[in-house]
């Protein structure tokens, strides 16, 4: 009954809630049968009202008040964070005359409180007993308030979101959702409903990566793309679909900060880094170590209780998944190898989809309620998922393309990805005698389908943005009268593809360094003309890899 009252007050706090106590051994049906309408009306006229609970009024961090029987008590200034004392500057405003009396007092010192109450009652005419009772109540409230602040600072992870969102009904609904066939298809629809426009190849992949943050198979995503193409928007949208009590959204990480987290403060977290340029070289090193080793150790200097200087090992445990955005993935080679690489969709079609969604939102036709409902359901699904070890009986039946770079880590990431898909389907998967989930052929097929774009990025020598530029460049050259022998300048390409001078220069320089294009005419002063010197066929390679993976998947049925 108390839970129902709490839920009603959370939904409609302005409504007064009273309780009716039925006679012992009776239900509402019995009351209706035995006493009729008059008995029910009489019962409703005598509700139990809740006694007023004394509370503090927080005006600011430096002013807290409490209304007592003798007057209003104000604690002025910041409270001491030493839990062993409660020395405050106290302002007492009389109830009748509104006179103000100011004292400095340690509310934990019983003798001092008694003396102050006696002195104030003699000089100002207060009732000494009531004044002392008010001060005791004020002390209890201040002590609870201070302990809550201290606990919030020492343990920043709270259940405020989960308590509010994961009601018993929401818990049941989340399990029902995860028990449906084709869970990932339903998740993908919710991601689209949550406000992510397009990005069908990336959004489900990113969601699976992010969902691994409290599971045994941690994964990390690195989203690359040109400036202004929606990298941060994409990873933030995925983060909004995760339980907010577990998300750490960072713009910048200083060189030493990761070493100074408390022992388990980075356990079971999803870390969002808005731009990897926000990490200096030492922070990148620490971040890599936490991804790989799952802990950081540092030898530091401390003073013991006698004041002597000595060395001490400080360890920070970590267990987190991460989503990072960057415009320069190739610069962070060591970090790239530890992450699943994705590229945002920079096509004109995606731009038009985004513009349409923006315009629709500004007209007021898009439903924010629908977006919030989708996000909340996905968050609750993550809250009800349990951590399991996974056995994949098909792990040795599938081989990734040998052309892929960093194949050892890519294979490990793919196997973890299969395991995470099995975990997302845990309400539909069998367990072995050791309590481990058993991955199915369907999990492997779905993993290949979703993970395929990341495999191609690892096979391709060019990153996703440069690849998109090069394909557009080849299309432009083929459309010219001279065909594949056409010579072009950077300015012509910049104007044709409608990109900035900085982006065009970066892409052209990369393609020249990798010998995809070659300068054949001109000078530094007058500018160069280029030709495409290497006509690769990425679509053909994609088709070959897809066919090869498909034939391996077909063998799973036979075996």
From TrEMBL:
<dbReference type="InterPro" id="IPR027417">
    <property type="entry name" value="P-loop_NTPase"/>
</dbReference>
<keyword id="KW-0175">Coiled coil</keyword>
<feature type="coiled-coil region">
    <location>
        <begin position="128"/>
        <end position="155"/>
    </location>
</feature>
<protein>
    <submittedName>
        <fullName>Uncharacterized protein</fullName>
    </submittedName>
</protein>
């Amino acid at each position: 009954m108390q839970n129902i009252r709490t839920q009603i007050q959370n939904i409609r706090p302005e409504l007064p809630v009273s309780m009716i106590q039925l006679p012992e051994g009776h239900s509402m049906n019995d009351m209706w049968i035995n006493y009729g309408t008059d008995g029910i009306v009489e019962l409703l006229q005598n509700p139990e009202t809740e006694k007023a609970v004394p509370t503090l009024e927080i005006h600011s961090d430096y002013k807290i008040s409490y209304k007592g029987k003798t007057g209003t008590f104000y604690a002025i200034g910041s409270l001491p964070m030493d839990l062993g004392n409660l020395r405050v500057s106290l302002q007492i405003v009389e109830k009748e005359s509104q006179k103000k009396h100011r004292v400095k007092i340690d509310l934990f010192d019983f003798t001092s409180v008694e003396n102050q109450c006696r002195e104030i009652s003699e000089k100002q005419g207060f009732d000494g007993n009531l004044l002392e009772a008010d001060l005791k109540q004020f002390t209890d409230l201040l002590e609870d308030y201070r302990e809550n602040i201290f606990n919030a600072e020492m343990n920043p992870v709270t259940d405020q979101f989960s308590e509010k969102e994961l009601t018993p009904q929401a818990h049941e609904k989340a399990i029902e959702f995860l028990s449906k066939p084709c869970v990932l298809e339903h998740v993908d629809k919710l991601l689209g409903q949550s406000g992510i426009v397009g990005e069908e190849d990336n959004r489900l992949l990113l969601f699976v990566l992010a969902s691994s943050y409290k599971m045994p198979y941690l994964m990390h995503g690195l989203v690359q793309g040109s400036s202004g193409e929606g990298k941060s928007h994409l990873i933030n949208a995925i983060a909004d679909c995760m339980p907010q009590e577990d998300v750490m959204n960072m713009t910048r990480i200083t060189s030493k900060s990761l070493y100074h987290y408390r022992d388990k403060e980075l356990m079971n977290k999803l870390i969002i880094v808005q731009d990897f340029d926000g990490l200096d070289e030492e922070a990148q090193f620490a971040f890599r170590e936490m991804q790989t080793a799952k802990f950081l150790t540092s030898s530091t200097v401390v003073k013991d209780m006698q004041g002597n200087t000595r060395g001490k090992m400080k360890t920070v445990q970590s267990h987190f998944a991460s989503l990072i955005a960057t415009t320069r993935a190739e610069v962070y080679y060591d970090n790239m190898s530890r992450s699943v690489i994705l590229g945002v969709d920079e096509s004109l079609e995606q731009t038009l989809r985004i513009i349409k969604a923006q315009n629709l939102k500004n007209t007021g036709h898009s439903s924010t309620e629908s977006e919030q409902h989708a996000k909340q359901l996905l968050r609750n699904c993550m809250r009800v998922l349990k951590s399991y070890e996974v056995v994949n009986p098909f792990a040795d039946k599938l081989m990734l393309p040998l052309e892929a770079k960093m194949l050892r880590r890519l294979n490990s990431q793919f196997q973890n990805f299969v395991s995470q898909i099995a975990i997302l389907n845990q309400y539909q998967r069998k367990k072995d005698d050791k309590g481990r989930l058993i991955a199915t052929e369907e999990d492997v097929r779905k993993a290949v389908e979703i993970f395929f774009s990341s495999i191609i990025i690892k096979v391709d020598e060019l990153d996703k943005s440069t690849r998109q530029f090069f394909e557009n460049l080849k299309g432009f050259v083929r459309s010219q009268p001279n065909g594949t022998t056409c010579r072009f300048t950077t300015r012509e390409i910049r104007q044709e593809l409608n990109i900035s001078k900085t982006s065009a220069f970066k892409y052209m320089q990369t393609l020249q360094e990798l010998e995809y294009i070659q300068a054949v005419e001109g000078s530094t002063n007058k500018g160069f003309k280029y030709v495409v010197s290497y006509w690769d066929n990425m679509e053909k390679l994609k088709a070959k890899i897809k066919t090869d993976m498909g034939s391996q998947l077909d063998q799973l049925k036979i075996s």
